[in-house]
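Quick one: structure tokens for this chain, please?
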Amino acid sequence: MRGRIHNYSIPCRYCAGKVTRSYFIKSAVCFNCKIRTSKIRTKRNKMKRSLLRKISKSPIAEIKKEIQSLLRELAIIRDKECVMGNYPETGECGGRKKNGELVLQFDHLISRQRSIGWDVRLGITVCLRHHFYYKKQYPFEYERCVIDNIGPERAKLLYRIREDTKPYHMNLSSWTLLEIALQKEVNKLKIKDLQE
């Protein structure tokens, strides 16, 4: 049926003359009126578009934001500094606050999209420069330094999870449980640091 065209006559919407209109053409305008009206621009009612939110306000998004800050805190307690600073070939650390303090970030070695990258073992602490610039410019060198730094056990876990392509769907209660577990771990490490 796709190749067949059904022709029938309808009146032109401007001059009421006969128009042979095919099944696929939407406009009902005769040839003379089409030429005449094509030069007239019609003003369309434009719908006002609101800007999309860059960060969602949903409960899951709020929990993920809190989990991200807990992971960062745990990684900073574990690593103490940018792990790329130990490798002179990666260059100096960069990205400092106004008071001169180095901005440290948590780099997920597994994408967060699959809901499996939210593990402190699957991330490292890096400075702003190494996270946003060095990682993109020299991905293979970055990967080599990361694998060297995290050790054989975490590297084995990293490779095993990268091979696993199954998506892991989590609901609000799962995210809440993860947040509670990370909060307990942060509190335990803070108490341990105070005792030492």
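Residues 59-161+186-195 form one domain.
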